[in-house]
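Hi L.,

You mentioned the student needs an example of a multi-chain input paired with its predicted structure. This one should do, with 954 residues in total across all chains.
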Amino acid sequence: MNTTTVKFKLALFIAILLGGTITISAQIEDKPNFVIIFADDMGYGDLSSYGHPTIKTPNLDKMAMEGQKWTNFYVGSSVCTPSRAAIMTGRLPVRNGMTSKVHRVLQPWSTNGLPQSEITIAEQLKKGGYGTAAFGKWHLGDKEEYLPVNNGFDYWYGVPYSNDMDITLEMNEPQDYWNFWKSEERKEISSFNIPLMRNTEIIERPANQHTITKRYTNEAIEYIKEHKENPFFIYLAYNLPHVPLFASEEFEGKSKRGLYGDVVEEIDHNVGRVMEALKEQGIAENTIVVFTSDNGPWLVMDEEGGSAGLLRDGKGSTWEGGMREPGIFWSPGNLKPGIVTELGSTMDLFTTFSKLAGVELPDDRILDGEDLSSTLFEGKESPRETMFYYRGDELYAVRYGSYKAHYVTQSAYAEDREAHETPLLYNVDVDPSEKYEISAKHPEVITAINKIVEEHNKNLVKGPDMLKDWDYNPFGG
Amino acid sequence: MNTTTVKFKLALFIAILLGGTITISAQIEDKPNFVIIFADDMGYGDLSSYGHPTIKTPNLDKMAMEGQKWTNFYVGSSVCTPSRAAIMTGRLPVRNGMTSKVHRVLQPWSTNGLPQSEITIAEQLKKGGYGTAAFGKWHLGDKEEYLPVNNGFDYWYGVPYSNDMDITLEMNEPQDYWNFWKSEERKEISSFNIPLMRNTEIIERPANQHTITKRYTNEAIEYIKEHKENPFFIYLAYNLPHVPLFASEEFEGKSKRGLYGDVVEEIDHNVGRVMEALKEQGIAENTIVVFTSDNGPWLVMDEEGGSAGLLRDGKGSTWEGGMREPGIFWSPGNLKPGIVTELGSTMDLFTTFSKLAGVELPDDRILDGEDLSSTLFEGKESPRETMFYYRGDELYAVRYGSYKAHYVTQSAYAEDREAHETPLLYNVDVDPSEKYEISAKHPEVITAINKIVEEHNKNLVKGPDMLKDWDYNPFGG
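Structure written out for the whole complex:
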């Protein structure tokens, strides 16, 4: 056990004695470790504890049971790149230009990445003396200057973008990409010439995706063992269950949910290994582990995509299924176990971890995060009251308390965009599936949300679009 | 603690020593108590442990965690009367005439009820010396001869049919009924002149539905206290969360899910009281408690209906949402805790309980139940391989292992009936939402299921229709 544990627990004890009238973050004199485990395209409904009938996730379920299972936990965007920009910077991607009118995510042929002017959560925690390491998918720029090791991470072992990129088959137009997923070639590793990198060097190409979940975990565990004496921040971002789906021999065919379930069960197994390693090293009590996913399930992939459970739509959409995710917080002995129905967001991690690490928040920019400490440690109401749902650089919807107003609606991957003069209104606590429109019944809520939007827009400076420029056009256009 | 507990636990211990090679039911020399808790119209997705984000069900979640959470657990029909006939008799309702071409459920003006020739689970357990009591909704006939006390129960305290019947407002045609649910009158107890009965006597009319969940539970707990020295069977069938929704003062406005959530949380609270009472009386370890619901959520009731989670459609439908339900088994110390993805059905309770009670199964009729003991106590595969989904007296679909073939499809409450020459095929383990039709890929499965249907039909003798006859026509027809 490292020496920080005792102080951390003592601080919590004092906070409890004091009746929780001051936030826990003020009490922590020492620095807990942080581990973010980030799945890719896993849906709200894909864990047994979130209601999936055939995917078995005993480790994540245990994490949820011993810790807190958040049921209104949001990502910053419904697709990969902007969602990752949001968790990394604690800001809406529209502020840092990581979302665009032209393209939804970065491609291997994209010119840019996360602007250097942005402060990542890793850079932020380094200010507090943290060791920082990333394992897995990045997707915030694959040019050297944009890679994790140039954005606050001491170390990185992973893949620079999505595991479906660098397809080796000829693609002449975007439709070829969708057709490919019905072909047999999608099952071959060699169809995806993706690079596995260590820091700035490519060490394997194509990456063997069958073993990639396990290898990311091995490296993370190694890091935990080597760095347990000092506070650390680990960002463990699995490439899966994004398509193409690959499982190891041990897991292929294991689940009743088909290959998708095998892949999720393999991730669950490896999350269990991380928890076990933290326990074995005696630092679980001084670590906060968060598990979530970057966006909703990619429904157009049919059985190879996941499930948003009872939520509407999925990846790519500003309906709940696109942006609400499992959110599990685990820190044995520190968190009040239970189900938390308060609002939270991946953007809150930047703020919350900064507070717990004793690092000042930057005051030269707008942050979109809240400090969740008092909800995590004292069971208080979350300070988060709103969520802004952007598609590209346009605000589509706003959640305010139990309500959600849709100014624009559009299916995940269809051109059925519809703007609403009076926004569509849903009470997503009463009606999480967004079935029963109630704007006529609650004009006062619309008025309140309109004001929130007005306020939001006042301060909104959109970052220059980092996604629009391509070095070349792979479709020859 | 009654004396049966020790023997029951000893038998289990011996079974474990023997490596589980023989079924536990053969080991039980004594008679455990049975409690069936049956909700009404609660959907697959309405408990937190089955994925609902805002309904908090800590007691049922605890039951699921300490016991077994079944995720492929089916009722015998997608509407009340036949579903209740199925759990009572361990038989498909088509065999006992409790399903019909003409009407879906019994009405207060129906002539008939469950035929006396049927053997109820209560009659069956009485043969084994059990005390038997029913609390709550019956809906298998409201003429005296059809009431619980004339069908194997020593005692009954409850309502003879659904809590939305006996509406006091004028209804001239069926559409008036649906319009009523948009009116303010639906919120008044006095709009429902339903009788609360003790045995064969009406003791309150209209029943005060605000307190009915609590009062059923009070009576059940009283029964437990008074009968703990001898084996008993309790059937605790709450009228709620069927519309009209009513909660007590303590629960109204408590949940984030609106009145529906309040009602479910009140049921959860009362289920917790039953568990507590069993513990307090020292008989929890010698009792098997089962919690389930009679059919899927009544989706046409909008926010006043529940959710089937990721399952398709709801009450009234042979899609999964109509007939798959939460199924929680709890018996502290006896069941191997975990999530069970094997097939089970309410019809299996008749068979399983008979075995555990040492009562011979009737040999003069076809039973549709399986003995689930070895799955419950030894973690073995379920003996159930099939499920037959009837709508009225017509077979619509058949589940066989992971597959489900739809011979006829129809939405819950629409006239869009469609027969399929080649049945629609789904793998409901891989695709629980029944989205991806795969008959072309698996002709061998169709062949196998066709054979199962042929075999099923050979032995099928439909009971005389008990639902079609009315004493009078309330619509003046």
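You could point out the following to them. Chain A has a mean pLDDT of 94. The radius of gyration of chain A is 21 Å.

Best wishes,
N.
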